[in-house]
Specification:
globular; mainly alpha; 8 helices; 202 residues
Length: 202
């Protein structure tokens, strides 16, 4: 049986669809900081931050959001291309990690990743998220809580990587906003997670 605290955590949690929108906004914020004449070390920091955020986001959707949608959605066309599109992003991310930011091809590869992400995010925000809100109803907060808990597990081992890429991109001032969003998300995730752990002990 669910404890009262678990039930409250689920009920009070942001919905999974709003969390997905917040993740998209944070990644797009990072993209906006990248300019051709930005210094290579700042470029590398911005790209690392965006790539980690994208990897965690894609995994959360694949583990929690897409499976929930597969059980209720009638038109699966957008869902079916979602995972192949994530895999294409992963391919570009791997390529970027192996590249030097001084290489002009670094800019083109990052532009290609941005184009892919913008297209994918537009599809999710115009089709999948509104559909989820129509079809998943009261499960949206419960799935949001599940996503928060899983996010903490995925983010914790990468905290060092996130911190170092934030330091590298420090001169870009609104980057701090994006980094702040990642850190605030982790903080909230940690609190929710500890709250649940606490209730299990009683
Ligand atoms: Fe996605
Ligand atoms: Fe997404």
């Amino acid at each position: 049986m669910k404890s009262l605290r678990n039930t409250l955590t689920s009920t009070l949690s942001p919905t999974i669809t709003n969390m997905i929108r917040m993740d998209h906004t944070a990644v797009l914020e990072t993209f906006h900081q990248y300019e051709i004449d930005t210094s290579p070390s700042v470029k590398k920091g911005l790209v690392n931050t965006a790539c980690i955020a994208l990897e965690i986001h894609a995994q959360l959707e694949e583990e929690i959001f897409y499976p929930a949608m597969r059980t209720v959605s009638s038109d699966k066309s957008v869902l079916e291309k979602s995972v192949p599109e994530h895999n294409e992003m992963r391919r570009l991310i791997a390529q970027l990690r192996s590249m030097d930011a001084n290489n002009p091809a670094f800019d083109y590869t990052f532009m290609e990743l941005m184009r892919n992400v913008l297209h994918h995010v537009a599809d999710e925000e115009t089709t999948l998220l509104p559909e989820a809100e129509r079809l998943l109803g009261s499960r949206l907060s419960e799935l949001g809580a599940e996503m928060t808990k899983r996010r903490l597990q995925l983010t914790a081992p990468r905290a060092g990587e996130l911190a170092s890429s934030t330091v590298r991109s420090f001169p870009a001032s609104s980057m701090l906003v994006a980094a702040g969003a990642v850190l605030a998300g982790t903080y909230l995730a940690k609190r929710a997670f500890e709250g649940q752990g606490h209730s299990r002990n009683h």
